[in-house]
Write a structure and sequence with these properties.
- Helix content is 73%, strand content 0%.
- By secondary structure, the protein is an all-alpha fold.
- Helix 1 packs across helix 3.
Length: 98
Amino acid sequence: MSHDSKQLWGYAAAAGTVAIWSGFILISRLGGKSVLTPYDVLALRMGTAALLLLPFAGGLPRGAWRDGRLWTLALLGGLLYGVLVYSGFKHAPAAHAA
């Protein structure tokens, strides 16, 4: 891979990161302003992500599903974070999250 190609991939990755995070903030704020509860928005987010990632679950190592660290990170990093963020969007503007 040439230097120009690597640089182009770097810019594309940076633009993708900005698009994902800004989309997360805007959609979360929209959910926070709606009649949905933070739990509803979290269920929609986790359900969609689970459906999109399910085809890749077969590639995990065999013992990964029994690893307690995996479940701890999923609960704390996914569910707890989501509930707190979506609860905050009920009371704060999107600019504060950005």
